[in-house]
Amino acid sequence: MQHPKKEQTLVIIKPDALQRSLVGEIIGRFERIGLKLVAMKMVLPDEAFVEAHYTLDSEWRRVTGEKTIRSYKEKGKTPPSEDPLEITASILERLKKYMTASPVIVMVWQGAHAVKIVRKLVGGTEPLTSDVGTIRGDFVLDSYEVSDGDTRSIRNLIHASGSVGEAEKEIEHWFKKGELVNYHLVQDHILYDVNLDGLLE
Ligand code: GDP
Ligand code: MG
To answer: Are the C-beta atoms of residues 64 and 72 closer than 8 Å to each other?
Structure first.
């Protein structure tokens, strides 16, 4: 079994974050927690590639549709449709426009609990309710109320894999094997070395 420090996750800095010059700020947050950047590139994806990304998980359409219907009802609102697949079809159309509006930065970050740690730093999907201190909570103010009213995607700056399985599929979708680099960071020693040998002169 591979060591937990080898866990990897995919992060996409979405067009709104790039346009707002938040790339350095966002990368800095992943760096300072101790994650290791093992791949990075700028991409201008087309709509088919974005659709393929969101539908890598065959359950995504149903699960996201059901989740959205539930969230409307919890707020006492009527969902635009009772059919989860119809809801997702319209979410997907809006996502395709959003994600192809400008280049995105796509990265792979590695470290212990990389998937959960990155999700924690990124914050909840809707910026209105994302925790203060998270990227979505600190740098953007969008809500479903506003984005749905304007028939567009919620602008939430970042995509991050939701699980280890999702990360594996997404990394394979965006990167060729040779684009990921195995290397040591000096800080790996203090983060993961068992005995902390060699620190004293
Ligand atoms: P994430 O992993 O936090 O980005 O969120 P999900 O994977 O659950 O959803 C992916 C995308 O679908 C989000 O970034 C939104 O654009 C859209 N989405 C998810 N849930 C909702 C919802 O309840 N309402 C609307 N309008 N869009 C949603
Ligand atoms: Mg997701």
So the answer is: no
Report CA(125)–ligand 1 centroid distance (Å): 6
- Which atom of ligand 1 is found nearest the CA of 159? 4
Instruction: Find the helix or strand (DSSP H, E) in which 55 lies.
Output: none
Ligand 1 neighbours (beta carbon < 6 A)? 64, 67-68, 71, 91, 95, 125, 144, 148, 153-154, 156, 159, 162
Q: Where is 158: in which H helix or E strand?
A: strand 158-160
Phi first, then psi: give them for residue 10, nearest 5 degrees. Answer: -100, 135
Q: How many CB atoms within 10 Å of residue 67?
A: 13
For residue 53, indicate whether it is catalytic. no
Domains of the chain, start order: 4-44+102-191 (3.30.70.141), 49-100 (no CATH)
Tens digit of pLDDT at every position of the chain (201 positions): 889 999 999 999 999 999 999 999 999 999 999 999 999 999 999 999 999 999 999 999 999 999 999 999 998 999 999 999 999 999 999 999 999 999 999 999 999 999 999 999 999 999 999 999 999 999 999 999 999 999 999 999 999 999 999 999 999 999 999 999 999 999 999 999 999 999 999
For ligand 2, a single-atom ion, the residues with CB < 5 A are 162
Q: Within 10 A of 144 (CB to CB), how many other CB atoms are there?
A: 18
Measure 146 CA to ligand 2 centroid, in angstroms.
20
